[in-house]
Design goal:
nine-stranded antiparallel beta sheet; 365 residues; 4 domains; single chain; elongated; Elongation Factor Tu (Ef-tu), domain 3; alpha+beta; conserved putative lor/sdh protein from methanococcus maripaludis s2 fold; 5 helices; four-stranded antiparallel beta sheet
Length: 365
């Protein structure tokens, strides 16, 4: 058998076919190596992918959580207004008369005793006599009646001839905020001639819907913020409710409102009269409330839910809520005090492994 094999090899060597056959064998061997390399590379790639998947699925996701705690929450109402000096006192006329001249203008600061205006005084007895013979119950009515026979300006000129001129002085310090009359205009007894504001006190009048005015009373506390001073918040107190309601225009159309005045408890050198203000009035306080911040809540076809960190896993919990507050909504079912609710649950699934990297406990602040 061995001799036969050797003879075959000697025959092939001496034959012209042998070199060709060797080339074929080399080529086939080269092709086989390529397939072997390709197979090994494929197996290696599959192994890397499998290992990466294992590492991803097997590693924990870092999360930040808010630990729920019951606390007191204020029920509030918010309204916008403009900062102004306290309205102060109305300067009313003690007699009927005709305005001669003003000694101050709107915006002027005045001291107690400063002259405000002068006028032609029409004595009460004189007005009573006129009323008896003409039937006119007021100076304006008298002028209206007399104008049928002579011009109003002529009548005013005639009154000024016989009426003494008197001056009116300020009874307190402040700033003139408005003037109601002009020279040569007549006015009645007890008419509001001007308004003097108290400069040492700042206030914000706001319009409150009639639907809520029953919950507001003098002495309630408020927080006041200003667009010009976004980093500061000022405390205030409700000091006045208007005696009458009025119709105002708002975002939802016209509504009936009552003007409520919030007086600042303290001032600041950075405050300027005319600044836009936002007043948040505290109506009442709810005690021992579990509040979920709005940004922690998600929704799907099953309803509202949150993710809670529980034994190093994210657990999906459906919740029930009712009353809304400024910073969140009251939770009645699904979560309890001490639960660690995951802040950013985007992409999480129920049962996912997690690691808490930051924990914040709710407070009253």
């Amino acid at each position: 058998m061995i001799m036969l094999t050797k003879n075959v090899i000697i025959f092939l060597k001496d034959n012209v076919i042998f070199p060709v056959l060797c080339q074929i064998i080399k080529r086939e061997m080269s092709e086989m190596k390529k397939y072997v390399y390709l197979l090994m590379s494929t197996l290696l790639l599959v192994g890397v992918i499998s290992m990466s998947g294992y590492m991803i699925n097997g590693s924990d996701t870092g999360v930040e959580v808010t630990v729920l705690a019951k606390h007191s929450v204020d029920n509030t109402i918010t309204a916008n207004g403009k900062l102004q000096y306290r309205s102060g006192k109305q300067v009313r006329s003690k007699n009927a008369g005709v305005m001669e001249a003003f000694k101050v203008k709107s915006g002027d600061n005045v001291k107690q005793g400063d002259v405000l205006y002068s006028f032609y005084k029409i004595d009460d007895a004189y007005t009573a006599l006129i009323s008896q013979y003409t039937g006119a119950g007021s100076i304006e009515a008298l002028i209206g009646t007399a104008s049928k026979y002579t011009s109003a300006s002529d009548l005013i000129a005639e009154l000024k001839k016989y009426c003494p001129v008197e001056t009116v002085r300020s009874e307190y310090d402040g700033r003139v905020s408005s003037i109601k009359y002009k020279p040569d205009e007549p006015f009645e007894k007890n008419a509001v001639i001007m308004q003097i504001s108290e400069q040492h006190t700042l206030e914000v009048p706001v319009n409150i819907s009639e639907n809520y005015i029953g919950s507001i009373s003098r002495g309630q506390k408020a927080e006041v913020s200003f667009n010009a001073l976004p980093e500061k918040t000022f405390s205030g107190t409700v000091t006045k409710l208007a005696d009458e309601a009025s119709v105002t225009s708002g975002l939802t159309g016209k509504e009936t409102t009552v003007e409520v005045t919030v007086t600042l408890d303290s001032s600041d050198d950075e405050l300027r009269v005319g600044y836009s203000a936002v007043c948040t009035i505290r109506l009442s306080t709810d005690e021992d409330v579990l509040v979920l911040p709005y940004d922690l809540i998600r929704s799907d076809e099953g309803g509202d839910y949150v993710f809670v960190a529980e034994k190093n896993k994210a657990r999906k919990r459906y919740i029930k809520t009712d009353k809304e507050y400024k910073d969140g909504i009251r939770a009645t079912e699904g979560v309890s005090q001490g639960d660690a609710v995951i802040n950013d649950s985007e992409g999480l699934y129920d049962g996912q492994k997690i690691t808490i990297i930051k924990r914040t406990v709710q407070t009253n602040d």
